[in-house]
Design brief:
Length: 297
């Protein structure tokens, strides 16, 4: 999302987020990761409705890019894939009131199969999301008793399915497949997780680098408040948000209403329970070294 306020914001450090140090309070704009996918739209849309937009520099990217920038110091605050937080919790603190979650069907994480899921042996996976890949491995291993061969996704879905039994899609590509693809066999990973565990699935968390929080705690807390305000604003103005999103993304208003209704951004006790269950299962299949302690600002 690039609004007029976005264009008018303070100059960013660069497309890769480099060039601005941790700094001291007030020394530089706070560098915030910005999901390019539609699932992040309500997190950012309402920001320009508040004051002090110029205090932020939004750095755009897919989840794996933002993960790398945050961990390398190219961002101060960002959403981070749940599985990446598990590996790097010692350098990060979490926002206690924000996550990117679904309680069942999510639509934007889809496994497209050319044969029944019970029979798949090869899967092409997106390189844009680390959590979704681990989630799929958990679901296939523990839900279906499968350990297929995984390869990277190159090219389109139809092309990949000529050589692979299934394709994992996320974000807007998954939404397109979900709403327009007409695929006979499409499995929603949010729904599959809910069926397996009875819990919500937390796909991403909001995190701040510990050195930045030590230097600028008030600004960090302010970022959380602004993001919460954005979500609250959108919940009270869905038609406005849908109209704006339909001009920025190739989806019809009815599709956007259906999708936005499935997204959750809070981080309740049940969501934390779902996150910890994800970590436990990731450890069980060898995709995480341990269940991290959740530490908050």
């Amino acid at each position: 999302m690039r609004t007029e306020a976005d264009k008018a914001r303070r100059p960013a450090a660069g497309a890769d987020g480099a060039g601005a140090g941790e700094g001291t309070p007030g020394s530089a704009a706070v560098r915030i990761g910005h999901f390019e996918f539609l699932n992040g739209y309500p997190l950012y849309y309402g920001l320009e409705r508040g004051q002090g937009w110029g205090c932020f520099d939004l750095v755009h990217g897919v989840p794996t890019k933002l993960n790398g920038l945050l961990l390398a110091g190219g961002l101060d605050i960002s959403p981070i894939s749940s599985i990446e937080y598990a590996a790097h919790a010692d350098g990060l603190l979490l926002f206690p009131r924000l996550s990117i979650t679904s309680d069942g069907t999510v639509d934007s994480i889809q496994l497209i199969c050319r044969r029944p899921i019970e029979n798949i042996e090869t899967v092409a996976v997106t390189g844009q999301s680390a959590t979704s890949v681990v989630l799929l491995k958990i679901l296939l291993r523990q839900g279906y008793g499968l350990a297929p061969e995984f390869t990277g996704l190159a090219g389109g879905v139809a092309e990949a399915l000529r050589e692979r039994d299934a394709v994992l899609l996320i974000g807007d590509q998954a939404l397109d497949a979900c709403y327009r693809g007409g695929w006979e066999r499409a499995y929603d990973l949010g729904s599959e997780w809910k069926e397996l565990t009875g819990l919500p699935m937390v796909f991403a968390l909001w995190a701040v680098r510990r050195p930045f929080y030590r230097a600028r705690p008030d600004e960090t807390r302010e970022v959380q408040e602004r993001l919460l305000y954005s979500v609250d604003y959108c919940r009270g103005h869905w038609e406005e948000v849908v109209t704006a999103a339909s001009g920025a993304y190739p989806f019809e208003p009815d599709m956007l209403r259906a999708y936005f209704s499935k997204l959750r951004y809070d981080f309740t006790g049940e969501f934390r329970q779902g996150l910890e269950e994800f970590y436990r299962r990731a450890v069980q299949i060898g995709e995480a070294g341990g269940v991290p302690r959740l530490e908050f600002i």
